[in-house]
# Entry
Amino acid sequence: MKIGNIDLGFRPLLLAPMEDVTDPSFRLLCKKFGVDMMYTEFINADGLIRDAKSSVAKLDIFDYERPIGIQLYGHEIDSMVEATRVATAAKPDVIDINFGCPVKKIANRGAGSGMMRDVPKMVEMTRQVVNATNIPVTVKTRLGWDDASKNIFEIAERLQDVGITALTIHGRTRAQLYKGEADWTLIGEVKNNPRMTIPIIGNGDIDCPEKAKIAFDTYGVDGIMIGRATYGRPWIFKEIKYFLETGKHLKPFSIPEKVELAKFHLLKSLEIKGNKTGIFELRRHLTSYFKGLPHFKEMRLKLVTSMEHDELISLLDQVAEKYADFIPDESINPSPWVY
# Structure
């Protein structure tokens, strides 16, 4: 699969851009476990052109992360165009437009998935962003605003016509948020539309190797983007690749192995963001590393309330010792698709 001149190989796996999740420390781990392409946290176009500190910080990328994309969102065309020029100066490999975020404060302003209610504006914004940069432009979006307006088939064709180089489709409407199961049928229909020549990347509910195989084999997508399933589980990319290559499951990580990864993640987070922010933003990952452990409530509470590095390291060591012989069965599909 190629995005412009970027060759991602056969059946690539991509890390979705997620606020307060896909920071440099987490991206480093995902890279170590074989992700083929990553994105920064998504960036507000208005904040970026106002030189807001939090937005500008998200432009930081490192050569070892490549290929990497910067995702922008906004509701005004002029702001998106100017933000595109700023992001281009950071020299990412791809500029991605977020037409998929369902969060109320974003969508109700007409940004993110809110743009799906104004397709002409969506298309014009995309056209102007494409013309504002020499970097490949891609789009991430959803099936439609709600069940009555699943217009992704039309949108895909029109966005391709104004110059995007790949399209990622999340298999839900905005109205669904993240509820229910993702519908991959329409994703497959877009991919199999003879008018479409750009890569189609599927997104939604890929949380185990079996689902990844179904997505490729049944719906024919060129690539898969994984988001929430990576929380505390950056090795999911390695698990999926191993299964696609061998038909077998990778040996589950032991708890001591997960503890060492959590420590590494903690140290990198502190190095990049400092003590307070680094610890606070790591919490969603830290407890997810140990999801499913029995009698873990008390320890989980300690992990999400501690603000001291040494204390966290000590707590993690306690987890490693207490659960040294516990092997979670991650080969079990946690939420099977039904056909």
The radius of gyration is 20 Å.
